[in-house]
Structures are given as structure tokens and as C-alpha cells.
Amino acid sequence: MSAFQLTALARTTDPQTMLRRFLALDAVVTAGNGLAYAAASGPLGRFLGVDSGLLLTLGVFLTLYAAGVGFLAARKSPPVLPVRAVIEVNAAWAVLSFVALALWLSPGAAGAVWIPLQAVAVGGFAALQYAALRAIGGAR
To answer: pTM of the entire structure?
Structure first.
């Protein structure tokens, strides 16, 4: 991704601000998913064709994870190692979503659409965060 594209997405030329904005957006979206999964695991499980216990567990995890990502986003200069961990967790989530879909999940039609869409979105967050971290000089 070019610096111009990153600048357009983040609406700033400061890589540190870009990183913080991408982390904040990740935190908001992840918290929204986590809270929905936790609060409505039964109805969402039926709609997606996914076990409600799995959604509840994922919801709690995602909500806690989002809080950590939000904490990083609130820092004036997020530390490199925790940001790298967020990028790696996001990348792993994206990959594991496709693996789970292929190997052990048998979702309904809505789930078969939702799971890849959220995986691509999470992978996109990882890519944007990595590009911003790289622009700062923290990706090696």
C-alpha cells in the first residue's frame, strides 16, 4: 500500500496518527462484534448457523481484545511490540477464520457469507496497521 493511499484512508500524513486511527477503528469494530456476539449469542448463532456457546466465548474474547487495542490507540505513541502483537493476532484471526470454515464449521448461508467477510475485514486491519507501523519504522 502506498503512502498516498494510507494518507487518504487516515486523512493525515503523520504515520503515528495513521496507526492510532487504524487501531481505534479496529477497536470499535471489534468491540461491536464482541458485544453483539456476547449479548445475542443465541439469536446470532441461529442466524449464522454457528454454535451459540462458541459465539459467546468469542464475544467475551473480542470485547476484552478490543479494550486492549483501544488502550493502544489512546496512547500518543503506541509501543511497537504490542502493536506487532495486534497485527499478528489480526492476521491469525483472518487465516483461522478460513481454516475453521473449511475444516470444522458448518454455518448456514448467512454464516458462510459473514465469516469470510469478517476475516477479510480483520486482515485489512492487519495490513493497514502493518503499513502504518512500517511508515513509522517499527516493522522489521
So the answer is: 0.87
